[in-house]
Amino acid sequence: NAGVTQTPKFQVLKTGQSMTLQCAQDMNHNSMYWYRQDPGMGLRLIYYSASEGTTDKGEVPNGYNVSRLNKREFSLRLESAAPSQTSVYFCASSGRTSGTLYEQYFGPGTRLTVT
Amino acid sequence: GESVGLHLPTLSVQEGDNSIINCAYSNSASDYFIWYKQESGKGPQFIIDIRSNMDKRQGQRVTVLLNKTVKHLSLQIAATQPGDSAVYFCAEIGGPAGGTSYGKLTFGQGTILTVHP
C-alpha cells in the first residue's frame, strides 16, 4: 500500500494564479482532510470530507475549495493564489479500519510558494 | 477560540535519557488527545492517543499522561534515541456533540526534540 500520496511535491505560483493539489489514499478510508502548516506552527484544518459525497469547512477555509472526487481522491483548489497561502499542505485520511478510531495517516506534503 | 499549546518549544536531551514533552489545552470539552511525531520533510506520524476518561496510557517506550484538572497533557519517551529527534505535536478532538465523529483535530504549536549522541 502506498498510503496517502500527494502531487505535486513542490510548486511555485505567481499571485493570482490557480492550481489544484491532488491527494489519493489506498486504505479504503472514509474520511479525508486537508491541512496547512506554516513555519514553526502546528497544522490547521482547511477542509475535510467525512465520507464520499460530503465536504465541510475547517478552521481556515477562505481562499480554498475542495472536491471529493471519489472515495480515494480529495483535491484542494486555490482559485487565485495569494502570498499568504505560502505554506506546506498536508492531506490525511482516517477510517475505522485504522488502528485507532481517530488515527489520521498523512501524506508527504506539498510545499507551495506564492510570489 | 479554543486552542492547544505547548509549554516548551525546544527540548535537548542526551541519548538514553528520558524525555518529557508537555502540552496545555484550553477546551475542557476535549474528548480525545493524540501525540504526533513529525520528522523533517515528512508528514506527522501517529505515536499514541488517550481518551478523556483515562489518566495514563502506555505504548512502546512512550507514555501519555492526562491531567484534566489542570488541562495538561504530557508525552514521556523512555531511553530517548537519536531517531526520536523530531517535532512533536499534541492534538485534540473537541467534545461538542457531533464534533468527534470525523476526527477533526486541533494541533498545538509543536516542540522540537533534539537527541544528542
Q: In words, what does this structure look like?
A:
The complex is a heterodimer of chains A (115) and B (117). Chain A is mainly beta. Helix content of chain A is 0%, strand content 49%. Chain A has strands at residues 4-7, 10-13, 19-25, 31-37, 43-49, 56-57, 64-68, 74-78, 87-94, 105-106, 110-114. In chain A, the strands form two sheets. In chain A, strands 2, 4, 5, 6, 9, 10 and 11 form a seven-stranded mixed β-sheet that branches. In chain A, strands 1-3-8-7 form a four-stranded antiparallel β-sheet, with no helix packed on it. In chain A, a hairpin with a 5-residue loop joins strand 7 (64-68) and strand 8 (74-78). Chain A is globular and about 40 Å long. In chain B, strands 2, 4, 5, 9, 10 and 11 form a six-stranded mixed β-sheet that branches. Helix content of chain B is 0%, strand content 50%. With 117 residues, chain B is mainly beta. Chain B is globular. Chain B is built from no helices and eleven strands. The interface between A and B is medium-sized, with 27 and 24 residues.
Main attributes of the structure:
heterodimer; A: 115 residues; mainly beta; seven-stranded mixed sheet; four-stranded antiparallel sheet; 11 strands; 49% strand; B: 117 residues; six-stranded mixed sheet; five-stranded antiparallel sheet; globular
